[in-house]
Amino acid sequence: MSESEAAADVPAFRYTAAMANEIEPRWQEFWSQHGTFQAPNPTGELADPAHPRANAPKLHVQDMFPYPSGEGLHVGHPLGYIGTDCYTRYKRMTGFNVLHPMGFDAFGLPAEQYAVQTGTHPRTTTAKNVERYRLQLRKLGLAYDERRSFSTTDPDYYRWTQWIFLQVFNSWFDREQRKARPIADLIAGFEAGTRAVPGGKAWGELDAVERREVVNGYRLAYVSEAPVNWCPGLGTVLANEEVTPDGRSERGNFPVFQRSLKQWMMRITEYGDRLVDDLDALDWPEPVKLMQRNWIGRSRGAHVGFPMDGGDTIEVFTTRPDTLFGATYMVLAPEHALVSSIVPAAWPEGTKDAWTGGHAIPEAAVAAYRAQAAAKTEEERTAESKVKTGVFTGAYATNPVNGEQVPVFIADYVLAGYGTGAIMAVPAHDERDWDFAQTFDLPILRTITAPEGHEGVYTGDGVAVNSGFLDGLSVVDAKTSMIGWLEEQGHGRGATTYRLRDWLFSRQRYWGEPFPIVYDETGLPVALPESMLPVELPEVDDFSPRTFDPDDAGSEPETPLSRKKDWVQVELDLGDGPKTYTRETNTMPQWAGSCWYELRYLDPHNDKAFVDPENEAYWMGPRSAGDPGGVDLYVGGVEHAVLHLLYARFWHKVLFDLGHVSSFEPFRKLFNQGYIQAYAFKDARGFPVQASDVVERDGRYFLGEQEVVREYGKMGKSLKNVVTPDEMAHEYGADTFRVYEMAMGPLDASRPWETRAAVGSQRFLQRVWRLVVNEDSGELRVTDEPLDAKSRRALHRAIDGVRADMEELRFNTAIAKLIELTNTLTPLPTASREAVEPLVLMMSPFAPHLAEELWGKLGHAGTLAYADFPAADPAQLAAESITYPVQINGKVRGRVEVAPDTAEDAVRAAALDAVAEVLAGREPRKVIVVKGRLVSVVV
Q1: Can you tell me whether residue 294 is helix, strand or coil?
Q2: What CATH number does the domain containing 916 carry?
Q3: Is the bond leading into 545 cis (omega within 30 degrees of zero)?
Q4: H runs (alpha helix) in 744-810
Q5: Residue 107 lies in a domain
Q6: Does position 849 have pLDDT exceeding 80, yes or no?
Q7: Quick one: 852 and 888 in the same domain?
Q8: How far apart are CA 572 and CA 532, in angstroms?
Q9: Non-local CB neighbours of 211 within 8 Å, separated by 6+ positions
Q10: Are residues 487 and 551 in the same domain?
Q11: Hey, which residues does 799 pair with through a beta bridge?
Q12: CB 3.0-4.6 Å disulfide test: which of 181, 200, 281, 351 passes with 628?
């Protein structure tokens, strides 16, 4: 029982939690039965010309959909959902055809691990969790179009995920046109001789396998040996986000190793420029744009070749070609392809002891160091604070600008996946190179002038020195001059590179989308035809990948699907007669389903296409030339600022290039909601205790008789401080919970949770109820008597302010205005329909069940979902009067209140009259009236 219900003698018709729990399910059932929130499409199964918004302007608002875990929702999860629900309810009432869908991101590791532990099929667990989420979301009164809901695990959905994969697989990126094109266009160019074949042969000179290998080298989805995060303890490759900063798996806390494995990759790097440049067209928070730009990491500079005696050349990319004269050594990533071939049998004369790692033979030194590096994560290898380690390969390369022989090391602070996997080290102007040079006693040559007295590394601007033909040039001019020289001499070329790496798209798991790929007798991939989609997951008894000793870095993955031999080996007729093929036994990553779900919401039951072009153009098409199109408002956590959004943008751009969608970005506007934080309590041992059982006495906190310590942290099961929306709905009603969450603070700010504070929101709703209903008799209190002039002005100021707040998602201040209006109306002798009806309508986005109930009591049939949102009368917004401060020689000595349209002479006269006593007969030298602000008198 809530505090408001604890008092004795509660009136029979008071709005209480018990009443809310009777009203709310009834209205939820009404909305569901009547399809209240169904949005009509322009064409297809979901078209409805008779719908009240069939010809209205559209609005597509979307939440980042949840992963349905077994724990269900806590009160932090629906913060953004309630926010978008309030906004879409408001926009629907202002005349928009609103699409507000919700689905479930249901593939992934948690369900699979639960299946491994319990023997329950992930499909069973996922379906149960999804149903629980649906019930929890329904209990909150969220106005979703239920017809458009799906899970990424539905075969009817992942059929089209597989179809999109095939679009990517059957495409290549034309760098001249800066877009993806069908692979058939590439082959036609090779056949016609208009495009050169790599390797120099003519297309007709290649056999069938050679041709396929050439084409596969261009595909946007391709198989490659790639450095990955291998976790033997889990038996799977992990994405970077699944690895903790200390190099262990987020789930299970197992060691993670860097190694190369054959994996599916996506050539997202080809879209680096467009992914950066098109950010300018998006209405996204600037910090999120900056995170994406940094992740993509576009750098302009030069590729430079450092020749070696054996005929090999080490190619590096540098953003500072002007510092080439200062390159005194080179570093290769331990995984670099050249390492094995350049190591000599013995150390060259003059090799320093510190360079050998304590090994008498170069090959042994290099092998030991490579094994050491493989046991570290990228985070460990690139940490700025770590001591630099490495070993000399025994080889030298030639600096092309001065002919100097520079030693070649391997070191783990250089990564194979970044740039070329090799660097020219300029220790005078790079912190990491400086640290390495200091450790290994390597030469340091300054090539840029530093300020007088500066010691150590210098990374700022200056003039080139010790740089031959560059001496005296600025950094900018020196870069340009050096790139020109490199290209003239054949030692390099200007280039742009990216920090972004191709997208690792394979997982050694069961619970994911199967690839629509088989392999023939050549071992090369073959795309399945669209008619064979979806490729459904087979039934298996063992859902777990093979696991290994957690420290066994050399172990090999064994996927669950690989053990299903009758599924792996399959006979198919793909156009050249029945043949035996081998299926791909990796599955797609969880990101796949969330890369395009915004498009399936538009046309969820279409079995002919992933989306009808007319529906896509209506809901997500560009509004004008240069407009990116996309979802009108996308709301979710900032933790998805990079990977999910980047991957979704990449897939969308491929679909745009191929003509499948009209928008070139998936999400026009992005909004990041804040988080709910809550107090947690720990006992003397430091273990969390159940927060709901803790009581406060005299500023101290107790669990029974045991004193506990209060802390503050993110709400979660581990801290035992979870409060569920189900509990809140039972204790106070869902509408109270909704109002409380929206009133706590700005939607984009994190806020502290305090269950008892929800009483304030409940009391507000009770006051609104009392304006309409007599608590003792249940009779209607509202009359048709007009408002007095002052109250009418207050009403229209509230309407104007609430509208402005709703447009900008300022829900907390909108609620504050509604509370203020309610407080203004409560003392009046009668409740005027003129004010009460607009108040109920304005309150409905926040407390929809209560508003619907009151709307019915006010004599209206059906739902208020499509009622017109109140509009302010401009005449009522004008101020009744203006107060002018009156200054005498700069100090305020009085005030005068006049009508807004009072003439300047009249304002001047009224002001002088107001300070006549202070002037005491003195004649002013000057009287200045600043219209609407102040009167200044100079004496």
Answers
A1: helix
A2: 3.10.20.590
A3: no
A4: 758-772, 789-807
A5: no
A6: yes
A7: no
A8: 10
A9: 187, 190, 203
A10: no
A11: none
A12: 281
Domain co-membership, 186 together with 169: yes
861-913: pLDDT as tens digits: 999 999 999 999 998 988 778 899 999 998 999 999 888 888 999 999 999 99
Q: Which of 443, 469, 497 is a domain's end point?
A: 497
Locate 697 and state its tokens.
Answer: 């006495």
213-217, 540-544, 653-657, 873-877: range with lowest mean pLDDT? 540-544
Which residue do the tokens 């108040």 mark? 839
Structure tokens at 605: 């039951």
Cα separation, 915 vs 898, in Å, equals 15
Q: How far apart are CA 720 and CA 724, in angstroms?
A: 12
Residues 609 and 44: their CA atoms lie apart, in Å, by: 12
The span from the CA of 72 to the CA of 578, in Å, is 48
* Per-residue tokens: 842: 């304005």
Smallest CA-to-CA distance from 849 within 57, 85, 47 is with: 85
Amino acid at 867: A
Residues 332 and 458 in one domain: yes
Instruction: Enter the tokens of residue 299.
Output: 């750098």
Strands 171-174 and 221-231: unpaired
Give which of 568, 589, 447, 454 is closest to 519, Cα–Cα.
Answer: 568
d(CA 426, CA 447): 9
Instruction: Pull the structure tokens for residue 340.
Output: 């094995």
Provide the number of structural domains found in the chain: 4
pLDDT at 7 over 70: no
> Mean pLDDT across the chain, nearest whole number?
93
Name the DSSP letter for residue 787.
Answer: P
* Amino acid making up residue 70: G
**Closest Cα to residue 506, out of 452, 562, 550, 441?**
562
Amino acid, single-letter form, for residue 107: F
**Strand-by-strand arrangement of the 525-527 sheet:** 525-527, 517-519, 578-583, 569-573
The DSSP letter of residue 782 is E
Q: Alpha-carbon distance 212 to 414, whole Å?
A: 33
Amino acid at 738: R
Residue with tokens 């995060």: 229
Please report the sign of the dihedral spanned by the C-alpha atoms of residue 27, residue 32, residue 35, residue 38.
positive
Average pLDDT over every residue of 123-136: 94
Backbone torsion region of residue 236, taken as left when φ is above 0, otherwise alpha when ψ lies between -120 and 50, otherwise beta: beta
Q: What is the extent of the structural domain holding 860?
A: 3-10+723-873
Q: State the virtual CA torsion across 194, 208, 212, 558 in degrees, nearest 10.
A: -170
Mind listing the pLDDT tens digit for each residue in 488-535? Answer: 999 999 998 888 889 989 988 899 999 999 999 999 999 999 999 999
What is the distance of C-alpha 750 from the center of its chain? 17
For residue range 40-67, list pLDDT tens digits in order. Answer: 999 999 999 999 999 899 999 999 999 9
Query: Which of 820, 847, 873 is the C-terminal boundary of a domain?
Result: 873
pLDDT tens-place string over residues 728-755: 999 999 999 999 999 999 999 988 888 8
| Among 324, 293, 309, 274, residue whose Cα is nearest residue 425 | 324
Please state the length of the chain: 939
Task: Decide the pairing of beta strands 221-231 and 236-238.
Answer: antiparallel
Terminal C-alpha separation, the chain: 68
pLDDT digits (tens, 9 = 90+) for 136-181: 999 999 999 999 999 999 999 999 999 999 999 999 999 999 999 9
Q: How many CB atoms lie within 10 A of CB 244?
A: 12
**CB contact at 8 A, 772 and 780:** yes
Strands 569-573 and 700-703: unpaired
For tokens 């080139």, name the residue.
464
- Tell me: pLDDT of 1 over 50: no
